[in-house]
Structures are given as structure tokens and as C-alpha cells.
Amino acid sequence: MTVRAKKHLGQHFLRDENIARKISQTLEPNGQYRHVLEIGPGMGVLTKHLLTREDIETSVIELDRDSVAYLEEHYPELRPRIISGDFLRFDLDTQFNNEPFAVIGNFPYNISSQILFRVLENRHRVPECAGMFQKEVAERVAAKPGSKTYGILSVLLQAWYDISYLFTVHEHVFSPPPKVKSAVIRLRRNATSALACDETLFVAVVKAAFNQRRKTLRNALHAFRVKPEFIGDPVFTLRAERLSVADFVALTNMLERNNELKTD
């Protein structure tokens, strides 16, 4: 039995065992967690290598019923830990007794950004995330301030995670081969437990700043109605891509003070 890749699920099955082995070795629990959740295991090319590791206990979540049936047949020891469902909608609070867990996978490219945002929502329980992404997305996540690929995903993830771009993967190692190159990256929780600003406002500021990234912040943040007391700050002459996470935290605090002045 084999599983046919389904285009609507964004499936491209990795065929290179060496790359699968390298991805399985990217996780380093260091006593922080034992549980690992693999997203979209397909026919288990990565799963088989994760199962050989004695320092972790692997569970998988798979939306494709054919893949679930394949895994149940070929990896009977995994059956109690196969979740048939959608990671984006699954209630993660029901898993692992509220203990921390890592996320790994050869992620479906059509939902990879959504997977990262879900990881971010659960950052209090996900100390590490690693896996395969479309190269463009991987570069965006790992980009530094000043880069053309630096954007919303970069800032929000780097606020709570240290990002490592590990290696590039070419198209020919997949079946069917995608039309783009891929890359493996790793996210590890940094020491930030909470940002030194209003985190809801921080997210709003970052999104507004990059939604008009070619404009200076003076224009991109026009909707925030920045008062004269603040608009003269040099930061408003910059474009969003020039600001680090710390700069966005400072900008958020400035805009919070601006809002307080507006209501006085």
C-alpha cells in the first residue's frame, strides 16, 4: 500500500532518507520536553527516524485518511499516538497532560505560515519547532532587520523564538517534486516570557507597519493618529523593515502613551 499525494492537501512526500534523518536530529530536548508532535507524517519517512530516538516520545497528527491508514498498518507501535485530524483546528490542550511538547514535520506548504502562527499561540508549551518549509517562507522567518524578506512573520516569531536556518533542500528529493526549493529551520524559545509592552498592541503595530512596508512609519501608522508630541521621533522616518523586535517594543510603548494622551 502506498499513498497518492493529494494536491489540495499540499502533499509532497520526501523520499530522501538522509534528509529525513537530519531533520529528526534537529530536535534537542535538553530536559525541556519529552513529547514530540509530528504534523503531516504522510507515509512516515520522518516518523521512522523519530521513533528510533529514546529521548522523545513521538505522536503524529494527520488529516489525510489514506495516510492514517498507512501509518496504522506500517507502524503498529505508533497506533495509540496517531491523531486523525487537522493541526490548525485540533484542541492541543487535550494532549500531553498539559506538558510541553516540540513540533516537527515536513510541513504542507499551503498552510505552513498558519502552522507557525499556531505554534506562536502555544509558545508557553512549545519550546522547540523544526522542520521543512518552502525556502521563501524559511528565509522570511529567519530574516534579520534590513532584509527585503523581513516581515510580520519574522518579527512576531523572533520576539519569542531564536531562529536557525539549517539547510536548503532541492526539489528532486520529493514525490511529486514541488516547483520551489525547500529549507529546514529550527525555532527555539528564547528567554522572553512576556514582552515589555502591551502584546496585543504590539501585534497590531507590527501588522500595520508591514502592511504598507514601502511607506515610512509616519504614513504606514497613520491610522494610529500619532500626536505631535511623538510624530517627530526619528523612528517615524524609517520603514518597518529597519526595526528590530526591541525597536517595535519601544514603538508600541510610544503609541500606548500616545493613546493615553488622546483620551485625556
Question: Any overview of this molecule?
Answer:
This protein is of the alpha/beta class and 264 residues long. The chain folds into two domains: 183 residues, 3-Layer(aba) Sandwich (Rossmann fold), CATH 3.40.50; 65 residues, rRNA adenine dimethylase, C-terminal domain (Helicase, Ruva Protein, domain 3, Orthogonal Bundle), CATH 1.10.8.100. Helices cover 34% and strands 18% of the residues. It has ten helices and nine strands. The strands form two sheets. The chain has a seven-stranded mixed sheet. Helix 2 links the parallel strand 2 and strand 3. Helix 4 packs parallel to helix 6 and helix 7 packs across helix 10. The radius of gyration is 21 Å and the shape is elongated. The mean pLDDT is 93.
Overall residue-averaged pLDDT value: 93
Q: Quickly give the structural class.
A: alpha/beta
Number of self-contained structural domains: 2
Query: Architecture of the largest domain in CATH?
Result: 3-Layer(aba) Sandwich
CATH superfamily of the largest domain: Vaccinia Virus protein VP39
Separation of the first and last Cα atoms: 69 Å
- What is the CATH domain class of the largest domain? Alpha Beta
Supply Rg.
Answer: 21 Å
Q: Low-confidence runs (pLDDT<50, min 5 residues)?
A: none
Q: Total number of β-strand segments?
A: 9
Query: Considering DSSP H and I runs of 4 or more, what fraction of the residues is helical?
Result: 25-40%
Shape category: elongated
Sheet having the most strands: 7 strands, mixed
Write down the secondary-structure element order: EHEHEHEEHEHHEEEHHHH
Walk across the major sheet and give the strand order: 4-3-2-5-6-9-7
CATH topology of the largest domain: Rossmann fold
Strand residue percentage? 15-25%
Number of H- or I-type helical stretches = 10
